[in-house]
Specification:
Two copies of one chain form a homodimer. Chain A is mainly α and 201 residues long. The first copy, chain A, has two domains: 48 residues, Homeodomain-like (Arc Repressor Mutant, subunit A, Orthogonal Bundle); 142 residues, Tetracycline Repressor, domain 2 (Orthogonal Bundle). In chain A, helix 6 packs across helix 7. The interface between A and B is large, with 59 and 60 residues. Chain A binds a DNA duplex (18 and 18 nucleotides) through helix 3.
Chain lengths: 201, 201
Amino acid sequence: MNKDGDTEDRIFEAAQAAFHEHGFDGARMADIARRASINQSMLHYYFRTKEQLFDAVFRKAILAVLPPAIAILGEDGPLLAKLERFAHRYVGILQANPHIPAFILFELRRNPEAIGRLAGETAGPVFARFRGDVERAVREGDIRPIEPSHLLANVVGLCVFPFVARPMLQGGLGMGNEAYDGLLRTRADHVADFLRHALRP
Amino acid sequence: MNKDGDTEDRIFEAAQAAFHEHGFDGARMADIARRASINQSMLHYYFRTKEQLFDAVFRKAILAVLPPAIAILGEDGPLLAKLERFAHRYVGILQANPHIPAFILFELRRNPEAIGRLAGETAGPVFARFRGDVERAVREGDIRPIEPSHLLANVVGLCVFPFVARPMLQGGLGMGNEAYDGLLRTRADHVADFLRHALRP
DNA sequence: GTCTATACCTCGATAGAC
DNA sequence: GTCTATCGAGGTATAGAC
C-alpha cells in the first residue's frame, strides 16, 4: 500500500487504517503488515504488542478530536457565538477525520470506565465551566432556560451523530455518497442555525 | 446464568448478552455456552455457526428498534405533535433496550452496505413521506423553514446520542450512574421541548 | 438432544540467521 | 533493522458415544 516514510510511520498508518476500519478485535496484525508492505515481525519490533500499537492509534485519534473541541468550549465571549464557533470547527474536524467518531465509540465498549475517566479528567473542568456559562446566559436573558447537561449532549450529538450513523441515515434517506457529503458540508451551518433558534428566549 | 426456558431460548439470550456487550468479533462462543450453562456444541446444533447465531440476535435488535420508530413517523397529524410523540416513544424504547443502539452502530462498521440497503428498504418510504410532511408544515407556517434531511438527523440523533455516547458524556459531565439515569429519564421531555423551540416560526 | 473429546485453523508473538 | 520459520494459545466447528 505505502512504501514512503520510515518503517515506523508506515506501520502506524497501516495500523491506523486497519483499526479505524475494524476496531481492535476485528483488526489483524497480518493485515496491518501487508498494508505497510512489511514483515509482520516488524510490528512487534516497533510496538511490542497489538495492544500497544492500538493504544498509539487510539491516543492520536483522541487528541485529534477532543482537545480542539474542549478548547472552543473553554473560550470567552457570549454563549451563542461560542456554540456557533463550536459547531463550525467541530464539524470541520470531523469532516477531516470522518471515521474517528465511530472508532472512538467502538472502543468505548471495550473500555468504558477508562474512557469515562479520561473524559472526566480532560473535559471535566471545561464542562463544569460550560455549565456556569449556560446558567449565566439564562440569568441574563441571552437564551431561554435550559438544562446545561442536556444542552451539551444536544450540541455534541448534533455535530457527531451524522458521522457515526452515516450508513444508516444515508441508506434511510435514499442518498448517494455525493448527496450525503453535501449534507455533511452544510451540517455546521445547519447546527448553528438550529441551536440559535432553539435557544432564543 | 440461566437454566429456565428451553435450550434454544437460553442459548439465544446468552448470545444476545455476549454480542450486545462485545460485538461480533469480541464475543466468544465458549463464553456464550458458559452463560447459557450449556455445552458449546449445542450452539452449533441449534444455530450451525457463530455467524448465524449473530444474525438471529441482530435481526431481533433491529426489529425492536426500527419498526416502532418508523411507525410513529408514518402516523398522521400535525408534524410537531408527531415529533413529540416520536421523542417520547423512541427514548422509551431505548431506555428499555439501552445497549441496542451501540450494538447496531457497532455492526454498522462490519457491514455498512447491507445495513444501508436494509434501512433504505424499510425506512425509505416513511422518510420520503416525512420529507413531504416537513415541507407542508413549512408552507403552512406551522414551523420555520428547515431542510428535512437535517431535521430528521437532528431528531434521531437527539434521542439516540445520549445512549451510544453514555460513558463519554457521563464521564465528561462528572456524573454517577444514578445521575445519568436521571438525565435519560428526562431526555424525552427535553428533546420534545428543544424541538418545539427550535422549530417555532 | 446432550455430552466429551478433539480436529483444524487463525492469530499474536518469538527465535534466530543475516 | 529486516527477514523466514515456527511456536503455542485460543478460537470455531465437528465426530461420535450415549
